[in-house]
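Follow-up to my earlier ticket, as requested here are the two runs.
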Amino acid sequence: MNKPLLVFSQTHRVKAILRRGGLTTVCEEARCPNISECFGAGTATFMILGDRCTRRCGFCNVMKEPPKAVDINEDKKLLRAVKSLGLRYVVITSVARDDLPDGGASHFAKCIKTLKDNLPGIKVEVLIPDFRGDRSSLERVLKQGPVVLNHNVETVPRLYPKVRVGSKYGRSLMVLKMSKEIAPHIPTKSALILGLGERKEEIIRVMEDLREVGCDYLTVGQYYQPSKRHFPVVRYYSREEFYELEEMAKSLGFKKVACGSNVRSSYRAWEFIS
């Protein structure tokens, strides 16, 4: 069997396991450009707490509708899928759940604990919402020992009112700073998507801000408009521009950096801790 057919077969297998388990991936919901590569390699970024977000980010393809009740058995479904796929490194993310008292932090913690209790040696990275800046919620997640705490700033502060409705740039920086205060041994990670109208000096300022709060890892990718109703692409960045930004980020002291058109915060995530 040639490589394209192998990738197709593995992608179909991953989707079948996810459907049988009643699970959602951000790969599918956000129309990630790397979905074939990741599914073909037997990996996925699991999205817990449903597929409906309480916020209105203009770039995101996840549904913006009233969320459903939390699935109390989701941690067990996640465990079965991870076992079936034979994963040793798992990324867990979620929609924003501002309707929940702790923003869904206790559910994150429960999922991490279930995986670690039943799969010795499993590594779990979390890509969290901001939990409205609540320190106790963040503590609840970090207590379970994820190998990486990821929270994305996504864009420059000037564009937040248009692009990240319901979120605050300063609050996102505070979440990353608090993570280092609570669990300094756990690396922190963040991401930027470009093409929304940001300026170069603003990108560099965000990188500097992230380093000031101790952020260890950074990913930078190109924004692709999911549909006509989403925020438009203002510009596309060249390979040379991404390379220049990667070198700039490295010079600022990030331990690991990935920049490129199709780079996303969970793409090849296991390589960041190798």
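Run two:
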Amino acid sequence: MLIIDWKPDKTLRKPLYKQIVIYIKERISLGEWSVGTKLPTQRELAKVFEVNRSTVIEALEELKSEGLIEGKRSGGTVIINNTWSLLAANPPPNWQHYINSGIHKPNQPTIRMINQLEFKKEIIRLGTGELSPELYPKDLMKKVLLKISDQMDSLGYEEPRGSFHLRKTISTYMEKFGIITSPASVLVVSGSLQALQLISIGMLNPGSTILVEKPSYLKSLYIFQSTGMRLKGISMDHHGIKVNELKNLERNRNNLLYTIPSFHNPTSITMPYERRCEILKVCDKYRIPIIEDDVYRELWLDEPPPVPFKAMDKNGTVLYMGSVSKSLAPGLRIGWLIGPEPVIERLGDIKMQTDYGSSSLSQRALSEFISSGLYEKYLRDLREKLTSRRQLALSILEQYYSDIGEWKKPRGGFYIWLKLKRPISMEKLFSLASADGILINPGNIYDFSNNQNIRISYSYASLIDLRDGLKRLAQIIRKCDNN
């Protein structure tokens, strides 16, 4: 998907179509738009350039006459040459061929659009799963960075499993959740997403089945599918995964369960202790390994969630994922994986082959943040602020959505799983909302089939934007419902 951040200047005497021709030729000649690249549709180009469609058609016709682009019946308009290739005897490499041949699948179109729109300053982000810049602990982080700067003699590579000091700090911190582990069984990763990537290439055979909640955050990613795995959804009730459905699965030694039991993404469901015990018992019986994604654990608002699966694990069944991407700052790019030592050693070796270790600076900063007690102090303050944000979002939903949607009060995390009462086109809703400067995460990107849900996040937008965005979104939903 091409990113276009330019518009013709309507104050210039040069015709608009000529400006567009020059712009596209520059992108092609610089190699930014390579041979084989598909251009956006005429309608999309007219919208992004803020011109009439006839102006775009005139520009494209000139580019066609120069032999730079070609219209294909089913493939749209494609770049077929660049300026130099028209003069050369041999055609340039078709990079699109190589792109299409890569094993890693591209993101879903909606997610790619979300990833682009999130960086537009004027857009209100109602679905973003991270903390607002307003919640960043600037003073505390400054204190931490000043302290470690006095202690650093270098910023060299760390051990394959990560900084020993950070791993020791994490193993001590995990004791508060009932997880008893040694630093040797902890792997520092660049966020939980990297942990999943390492597992997919280092532990699983192609054709393995990843069992996930339905809906699931993992459904919005192609991490496992790109390495030849397949996802199978397991239904949920208000307590999480349905145990009977897990029991009745066709037995396969390549099955593996991925779950977010605490403040689930996207539904915010928290699995009670009894359900966790049942699921662990089934997985132990049928030898189904569990990947426990626990990145939202510290974001409880009413009461702490039950102990993790890992705290109850007596057979080495569970790989436990933690991170500060949700609770502190995604830009630190630090998470951790806890599991049997041979597994950690294997994945640590693969990590060294792929990136030679996570940021030394981030590891030192996080170690100091946690061991100094500042992290827990910060979390207490953060929970108060998130509780206020949750209450604001719930009050607005009650005022403007009671006739068009239904939801449950989340006990923690970032999300309200809003279900619309009447079916509408979620693609149309996403498009209309985006055009109005509101970015949402439609529920179908997390599910195995279309649904009528929206993941509302109260963690990112400013309080003013949260209030304004939710009000305007309600109007857009009604507009879709009436059409």
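The only thing I checked on run two: The domain at 112-135+377-482 is CATH 3.90.1150.10 (Aspartate Aminotransferase, domain 1). Let me know what else you need.
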